[in-house]
């Protein structure tokens, strides 16, 4: 049965490469029926379902894959993306950090570290934004009321779209595109609304955020003593040196790297110090 499952998987891969994600899902499902103990089949199907934005099904596949193979980096990577998409940033951050840890300790996943690192930062930022949103809503009952109205409108649109999809009026790919457009429009309206309130009362309503370039790609915290490598990546000195004790390679590129290759990033250090000093009232909550 395993060889039949492998044949079905390869056919699914061919459909996936052509962007035929629904067909790929069907073939991966058939392969799983033939060999339900293969964790990589669930990971393949999860990836195809990601393309279709079938978030709950992605999560189910990833959890099953992880149950069968705990150290499945791709499963945690896909799981984090789906959890973030359904607005569960805490769970998404945990999954993304696990994927990152598995990646940097792997000898075979050399090309994934930068992608996963970017996802970790995205999850952490989304978690922070959720806290910021609640803080701003507490500052203004009018903002909270208007945000609620915008969100209810978006939810109603998504529910109507799901009803059309279930009735066969739109296909999976078209539905995914429309869901994405509704979500983008809602986010834009919310951002515009918060910007207006920030302009009206900047002392209380201005959004607080940390620029990506100040964040260390190992600890995902704000850097204090950044160093730069020969290929231009910057890291917090202490955490990078600790990493190099275990593995003399760049955490993101896996190029050979030694302590003697590091140079102080003076400009970035100054930027970090200025940002922390200007935002000391809240920065340690980030």
Overview of the structural elements:
- InterPro entries: CHIP_TPR_N, TPR-like_helical_dom_sf, TPR_rpt, Ubox_domain, Znf_RING/FYVE/PHD.
- With 286 residues, this protein is mostly helical.
- The protein has three domains: 2-125, Serine Threonine Protein Phosphatase 5, Tetratricopeptide repeat, CATH 1.25.40.10; 143-205; 212-285, Herpes Virus-1, CATH 3.30.40.10.
- The chain has helices at residues 2-17, 21-34, 39-51, 55-68, 73-85, 89-104, 113-139, 141-166, 172-200, 202-205, 237-246, 266-278, and strands spanning 226-228, 234-236, 263-264.
- It has a three-stranded antiparallel beta sheet with strand order 2-1-3.
- The longest helix is centred in the middle third of the chain and has 29 residues, at 172-200.
- The mean pLDDT is 87.
Q: What features would you highlight for this structure?
A:
isomerase; TPR-like_helical_dom_sf; mainly alpha; 68% helix; Herpes Virus-1; 286 residues; Serine Threonine Protein Phosphatase 5, Tetratricopeptide repeat; flat; ubl conjugation pathway
């Amino acid at each position: 049965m395993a060889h039949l499952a492998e044949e079905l998987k390869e056919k699914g891969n061919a459909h996936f490469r052509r962007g035929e994600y629904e067909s790929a899902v069907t073939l991966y499902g058939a392969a799983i029926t033939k060999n339900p103990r293969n964790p990589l089949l669930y990971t393949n199907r999860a990836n195809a379902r990601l393309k279709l934005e079938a978030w709950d099904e992605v999560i189910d596949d990833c959890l099953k894959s992880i149950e069968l193979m705990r150290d499945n980096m791709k499963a945690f990577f896909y799981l984090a993306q789906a959890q973030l998409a359904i607005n569960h940033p805490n769970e998404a951050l945990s999954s993304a950090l696990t994927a990152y840890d598995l990646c940097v300790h792997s000898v075979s996943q050399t090309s994934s570290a930068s992608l996963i690192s970017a996802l970790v930062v995205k999850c952490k930022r989304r978690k922070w934004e959720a806290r910021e949103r609640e803080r701003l809503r507490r500052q203004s009952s009018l903002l909270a009321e208007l945000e609620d109205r915008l969100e209810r409108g978006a939810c109603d649109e998504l529910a109507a779209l799901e009803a059309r999809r279930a009735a066969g009026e739109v296909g999976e790919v078209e539905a995914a595109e429309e869901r994405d457009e509704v979500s983008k429009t809602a986010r834009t309206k919310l951002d515009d609304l918060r910007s207006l309130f920030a302009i009206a009362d900047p002392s209380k309503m201005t959004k607080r955020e940390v620029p990506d370039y100040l964040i260390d790609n190992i600890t995902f915290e704000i850097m204090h003593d950044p160093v730069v490598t020969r290929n231009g990546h910057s890291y917090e000195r202490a955490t990078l040196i600790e990493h190099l004790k275990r593995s003399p390679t760049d955490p993101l590129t896996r190029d050979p790297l030694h302590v003697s290759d590091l140079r102080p990033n003076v400009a970035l250090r100054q930027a970090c110090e200025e940002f922390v000093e200007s935002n000391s009232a809240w920065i340690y909550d980030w």
